[in-house]
Design a protein that fits this description.
alpha+beta; 5-stranded antiparallel β-sheet; 20% helix; 7 strands; 4 helices
Length: 187
C-alpha cells in the first residue's frame, strides 16, 4: 500500500526524484546495516541503488490522505528493514533537484519562470532498487520529455488585456457536408 501510494505521488509530482529519492549506481556506500553496525556496502557494476528520504515521503503520504491504515513511520521502516531489498541507512546523502519559481523581469516587469536548483543533505534509507522493482513490481523512474533547457533561463509570460475581441479568422473547412448558413433553424 505505501509504495503504491508513493508511485501515485510521483505521478502527481508530490514526490520528486532528486528531492525525496535518488536512484544511482554507486560502487560503494558507507552507512549502517539493519543491526545499526557501521559498514561499507559494495555494489556490483550496474546495480541500481535507491536512496529514500523515508521521513519526508511519509510526511507527504500521511498528509495527502493515502494513509488509510493509520500506519506510522516506524511501522513502515520496520517492514522495510525486514524486506530483502533493504540494504541499510546512510547518515548524510546529497539530494539535488530543480524547482520552477515565478519572478519579475526587472527590464519590463513581466513575470518569468525560472528553474532554480535546490539541494539538501540528509539521512536516507539504502534500498537495492533492482530487488525492489522485482519484488514490488513498481518502478519509480519516469521518462519525461527531454528538457534541453536545463539552465536557469527565463521563460517570459506576458500579461495581455483579454477584454478586447480579436478579429475572427475564417478557417477552411473540410466537412462531408455544406457549412451552416448561420441561421438557428434546425435541419
Amino acid at each position: 500500500m505505501f509504495f503504491t501510494a508513493v508511485n501515485n505521488m510521483i505521478d502527481t509530482k508530490q514526490v520528486i526524484e532528486g528531492r525525496e529519492f535518488l536512484i544511482e549506481q554507486p560502487k560503494k556506500v558507507t552507512g549502517k546495516d539493519s543491526r545499526g553496525d557501521s559498514k561499507t556496502f559494495t555494489f556490483e557494476a550496474g546495480s541500481n541503488i535507491m536512496f529514500l528520504r523515508l521521513s519526508a515521503v511519509f510526511s507527504i503520504f500521511d498528509r495527502s490522505g493515502y494513509n488509510n491504515e493509520n500506519s506510522t513511520l516506524s511501522t513502515i521502516e520496520q517492514n522495510l528493514r525486514s524486506h530483502s531489498s533493504y540494504v541499510g541507512t546512510v547518515s548524510s546523502r546529497r539530494f539535488i533537484w530543480e524547482e520552477t519559481v515565478d519572478d519579475a523581469d526587472l527590464r519590463d516587469g513581466s513575470m518569468v519562470k525560472l528553474r532554480k536548483q535546490k539541494s539538501t543533505s540528509t539521512s536516507a534509507i539504502i534500498i537495492d532498487y533492482d530487488k525492489f522493482v522485482e519484488s514490488y513490481n513498481i518502478d519509480f523512474r519516469r521518462d519525461y520529455a527531454d528538457d534541453s533547457n536545463k539552465e536557469s533561463k527565463p521563460v517570459e509570460t506576458k500579461v495581455t488585456n483579454t477584454t478586447e475581441e480579436s478579429p475572427k479568422k475564417t478557417l477552411p473547412q473540410e466537412l462531408p457536408f455544406e457549412p451552416s448558413d448561420g441561421s438557428d433553424e434546425p435541419f
